[in-house]
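Please, structure for the following, as tokens.
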Amino acid sequence: MTARPDIHDRLAASLKAARRSKGLSLDAVAKLSGVSRSMVSQIERGESSPTVATLWNLTQALHVDFAGLLEGRAAPGVEVVRADAVPMIAGRGTGLRIRILSPAEDAGSHEVYELVFAAGGALVSDPHGPGCREHLTVLEGALAVTSGGEEARLGPGDVARYAADRPHAIRAEAPARAVLVVQNS
């Protein structure tokens, strides 16, 4: 019996470190990559030799460098997404630009957005899932927030926390900027 190549150990350690640095479970990586949980576990333990396609799916799900995994480089401690690469949604006719600040794998659980309102801009939302809450922090300007039948007016530095499992809206009379955290239960 021949000794297992060192590349298996380096790959196993690199994948495990990348997964842990992102705070992801084996199940989460499996869901994001399309690679079964058991296969991810076997690869991390060095018990399986993944195909190039499997490795590619894992590196894309973990947002890590394919070559770096094979070279045994550690997962970066600081992940940087440059301003021009941050996903953005520009609402037609709403006077609102939304930058998506949270990673894709957090969608549906904990989402973070930067909201940039033009004068008269609004974000009007249907109810989200049961127990969903939003946390809005005004950075510049002033905003009016409604949730259900209640309304609050906010200025710079103010924070509003409200139920988002009912109709709700954020409106700006003048230009404003805020950070919105959506927390699903």
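The chain is about 25% helix and 30% strand. Residues 107 and 182 are 9 Å apart (CA to CA).
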